[in-house]
Amino acid sequence: MLANYHTHTERCKHATGKVIDYVEAAVSAGVEILGMSDHTPFPNNSLWPEVRMAYEELDDYIKQIDEAQTKYPQIKLLKAFECEFIEDYSSFYNEVLRGQYGADYLILAGHMIHGTSPWNRLGMVKSDKEELKLYANYLVKAMETGLFKFVAHPDVFGHFYLPWDEEAIAASKYIIEAASHYNMPLEINGYGLRKPEIMTPQGSRKQYPLKGFWELAAGYDCKVLANSDAHKPTDIIAKVEEGYQIADQYGLKKVEFVW
Ligand SMILES: [Zn+2]
Ligand SMILES: [Zn+2]
């Protein structure tokens, strides 16, 4: 079953193409299940509006997915959002995104952490170690809520925390143990596989996925999936196969979603 559960659109302001462009690319590529999962807006556009659709665009985003589904009944389209978890907005995720807008699932991701941010360094944390701990604590706390279907790029911290050392291993184990405990699938992210390598104390490597992370995950009872995290229509299924090769390489169990 060829599937991709992680897809953006031009609405997030750092991707290109409309819903229909991704759906047509997916149909051409033989994708059977496509989850549209653009970055969620927040009420009043209160948080990081520069990398997400405006709240006022929610209706049209959902409408375009419905229209594309009518036009292309041969593919199963799912409505989703990639979400930063903000505790104050718990009811928004549940009642608005899942309830009012009928989202099929929500993806948990850690790009922005309240009070700090791995993407946009605001100088509010003292060290990379501190930031790494904040990131791991954030993910685990969000997993506990049960609001999310899977965790996008759990090893994305590899883009700012460069060494693979005791701290990286401890943070990875904390995340993986929680995923195992809450039965929360972890994503091997194709966007990371498409990004240029960076230099670290242990040589050049991908920012993410991190080999060490997935090697550790193999020691736990956790499930994985691979997604393209497409930011342009031509990447609709890009690196998904390579993601599953990583899963196979470490003997990781693949999740089987049923819709
Ligand atoms: Zn993401
Ligand atoms: Zn994404």
Automatic annotation (TrEMBL):
Pathway where this protein functions: Amino-acid biosynthesis; L-histidine biosynthesis; L-histidine from 5-phospho-alpha-D-ribose 1-diphosphate: step 8/9
Organism domain of life: Bacteria
E.C. no: 3.1.3.15
InterPro entries: Histidinol_P_phosphatase_HisJ, PHP_dom, Pol/histidinol_Pase-like
Keywords: Amino-acid biosynthesis, Histidine biosynthesis, Hydrolase
An example Gene Ontology molecular-function term: histidinol-phosphatase activity
Family of the protein in this entry: Belongs to the PHP hydrolase family. HisK subfamily.
Protein name in UniProt: Histidinol-phosphatase
Taxonomic classification: Bacteria, Bacillati, Bacillota, Clostridia, Lachnospirales
